[in-house]
Design brief:
By secondary structure, the chain is an alpha+beta fold. It is built from ten helices and seven strands. The longest helix is centred in the C-terminal third of the chain and has 29 residues.
Amino acid sequence: MYDSNGYVTLHGKSLRELSLKFDYVSSGICKAHYEFVFVMPAHTPVDCFDDSSYNAWMIVSLKWGLIILSFLLLAFNPMAVQSVLVDRIAGAIDGEVITYSDVRIERVLGLSEGSDREILQRVIDRRLLLREAERFKITEGDEDIQKIQKRLGDIKARMGEDQLLEILREYNLTEPDILKMLEEDLLAEKFINFRVNFFVVISNDAVKAYYSEHQDEFGARTLEEVHNEIKERLFQVESKRRLEEYIEQLKKRVKISVNL
């Protein structure tokens, strides 16, 4: 609908301006207020679903408005742009969103290492494993709770109380949120032991064969001296192979999107 001057109307009111308002907030404090106004030109009535010049003007104006907004954010407050990046969607599993902040906090707390994409893949893998852990009724016991508390203590010792509190404020998290993340990490490990590692068996023949093929690596050490070391090495290789195969099967059952 349009008024007598040719402006678009909504609920009987003329829309002569399109305004965009937002506040930049840091640590719960409003640092700056921004307001952008796009003036609507009067035009002759047309079908709004038609490919009209008005629709074209609107599309171009909004695109340029977003571009100008981005430059102004960067010019007036680079931290505001950084805040937007923290909250963007990094990926999703069947619509379950994984944000960029989820990826960054993994690195900050030392739960994962590597590029953003590599960390995102680990987060995806863990969430798939957690779904399976829930299906198989894998839960934490008293010993696991002690391990979780110890891991939190290790993080505090490594980072320091003040730095950890600053990170919690930056990512709008609490200590229980960190404990939840550590709990999920431990439950994923428990499920891997239950579903994958339990079935990995390294025979003595495999150990002997590896020793014969890599004897130069062990020098003068005898097979008996390096038996456990070789067995553990072979166990880790086979465990990783089986886990990757298992996760690939899980991925085939869901829809995964990656935006990094």
